[in-house]
């Protein structure tokens, strides 16, 4: 079968279809824009730093260690969060059990004078040991 449409009729078909394609593309862009806004996992934030800290951030980027200033700040915050978590873990796993034991068995606690004497004896014992390689 021979296509009898002229080039101008192809143009007409294309022009007729264009608004539908345009609408579909714009709709997808609109939906994607909404999804990105709703699903965004970052938020722009303006901060003020002392000059030496601001220079430290810029130096990290200039050295190539980080690609952007935001990456420097994010890494710093991750490090801070890790430190806070480590302190919390230490308190929960080591300090709290010791405090609970001290409350349960106060007779095992030392007075300040006993502690000073024990520390002094310990320091003297270390000082009296011959040093190896000296």
What are the SSEs and their pairings?
Layout: H1 7-39, H2 51-62, H3 69-104, H4 112-128
Q: Your description of this structure?
A:
The protein is mainly alpha-helical and 134 residues long. It has a domain at 50-127. It is built from 4 helices and no strands. The protein has helices spanning 7-39, 51-62, 69-104, 112-128. The longest helix is centred in the middle third of the chain and has 36 residues, at 69-104. The radius of gyration is 35 Å and the shape is elongated. The model has no long low-confidence stretch (mean pLDDT 82).
The description of the largest β-sheet is: none
Any idea what the shape is?
elongated
| Share of residues in strands | under 5%
Structural class comes to: mainly alpha
Helix-strand pattern: HHHH
Q: What is the count of β-strands?
A: 0
| Helical stretch tally | 4
Low-confidence stretches: none
How far the N terminus sits from the C terminus, by CA atoms, comes to: 105 Å
Roughly how much helix do the residues carry, as a percent range?
over 70%
Question: Which descriptors apply to this entry?
Answer:
134 residues, mainly alpha, 4 helices, 73% helix, elongated
Quick take:
The chain is an all-alpha fold and 134 residues long.
